[in-house]
Structure prediction request, 184 residues.
Amino acid sequence: MKKNKRFGLNTVTDLKVFLLFLLDNIRYPVDRATVMSIATENTDDISLDYDQCLAELADSGHILYDEVDGENYYMISDKGRVVASELYDNLDEGFRERSLRSAIKHVSLSKSGASIKAYIETTDIGRYRVTLQAHDRFGELMSTSLTVNSLAEAEQIKRNFEAKPDGVYRGVLFSATGKIEYLS
Prediction:
């Protein structure tokens, strides 16, 4: 692997942390081609070390690996998430941001197996609070409430979230972060 200070991947450990960072943000099994596409898009480094690192991470139990119809799929394990979360800050902040923008295209509530819940409550002053929640096996992903004047509007918000949770989730992420990539 060539050293590339611009992106902060100077060691095999950095590369492993980067791969775990990507898989942790995608949150569900992703094929090797997608992992490689995101990695090379952000490092300008076509390297055989990616495959070696993925194999070592799988062997050590930091990622889960499976082969389906000749395609390799990877997902971060609980062990990988715990270990790597302490190491993410070792990657260059700008590099993490650029990499996250690439990974965002693959963030999906439905593919991650998240469960959603939406409910309407009447407030003390006769308005309607719509609460939208999403959880995956690791805990809460989103919980947001909107208060509107009409029950019809509240019901529309609830129906929209139930029909298109990914779109609402990405919209909330866009609104909270200002990163247009969440809408792509």
Summary: Residues 1-7 have pLDDT under 50 and may be disordered.
